[in-house]
Amino acid sequence: xxxxxxxxxxxxAEGQFANRLISDPKEAQTLEARHGILRSLALTPxxxxxxxxxxxxx
Length: 58
What we know:
By secondary structure, this protein is an alpha+beta fold. 52% of the residues lie in helices and 21% in strands. Strands 1-2-3 form a 3-stranded antiparallel β-sheet, covered by helices on one side.
């Protein structure tokens, strides 16, 4: 996601076989909302490190 000085938002979507720039305001808004949801679900570094250690220990 990229917030431009003029207030517009653009994004870049990557797929297995295609990449695309998203500049349509409605699509960018949807992408921004999805990005926010994923960020809110992400682990912080300490729990992530604990999870990796747990998985590595088997």
